[in-house]
Amino acid sequence: MQYHSFAQYYDRMMHDVDYESWIAYVVDLLKKSSVKTVLDAACGTGRITIGLAKRGFWITGSDCSEEMLMEARKNALEAGCKSIPFVCRNMTELCVHKPVDAVISTCDGVNYLTDLDQVRQFFRSANRCLRPNGLLLFDISSYHKLSDTIGENTFTEVEDEYAYIWENMFDPESQLLEMNLTFFVREGMLFRRFFEQHLQRAHRMEELCTLLEQEGFALIGAYEAFSEERASEDTERIQFVVRKIEDRV
């Protein structure tokens, strides 16, 4: 199961992620369209969600992992943002009581949709949640990153309180990256070992753009993440910014 036992250690192990810069980048993209209300899909432990709430956005966090949402609620309470609603819902079945100005998904949420039908369902449900001309923002780890940089490689990290072994296998036929993660977490004088397997799909820009058009969106830009430079074949993280142009049921 993905993000089960790992959830309570996720933030500790993502210590090198510059969330402040990531939040600032998303804020800049949202402010170009006077966005006020946001749905954060696949919000994880809520770091981006909380950052946007502190900058004045009315935001709801959504994730399919109840364990990750438990961490998000703790993080929100510690940050003084206890009013943020967090709901357990799959990306393919997003739902809001009232249409929002923007739907966002950061840090590989769309890569965890492992076939194009799931991606289509995400785009369709995001469309239903958006007001007319609303924005959809999402980023992906690129095909190049998953197939060439991460694929067939093993990564390790050893700290005083934890260690992990991250083994990867990429299948070019299915475009799936299988990530086998073994964790060792200190508990007193001993270390507890647990295992999780994660699957991500290496989506190609062209197929995503086709699906977006079919599901009622117009592409504003596909950028090299954290910039507004056009993404290239060597880009490792691609930021999509699209606008809803028609309703889909």
Q: Tell me the number of strands.
A: 11
What radius of gyration results from the CA coordinates? 18 Å
Q: What oligomeric state is this?
A: single chain
| Main sheet specs | 7 strands, mixed
Helical content stands at: 25-40%
| Residue runs with pLDDT of under 50 for 5 or more positions | none
Give the SSE string.
HHEHEHEEHEHEEEEHEE
Mean pLDDT: 95
**What structural class should be given to the helix and strand makeup?**
alpha/beta
For the largest sheet, list the strands in their spatial order: 3-2-1-4-5-11-10
Shape: globular
How many H/I helical runs? 7
Strand content: 25-35%
Tell me the distance between the termini.
31 Å
Describe the structure.
The protein has 249 residues and is of the alpha/beta class. Helices cover 28% and strands 35% of the residues. It is built from seven helices and eleven strands. Strands 3-2-1-4-5-11-10 form a seven-stranded mixed sheet, with helices on both faces. A four-stranded antiparallel sheet has the order 6-7-8-9, with helices on one face.
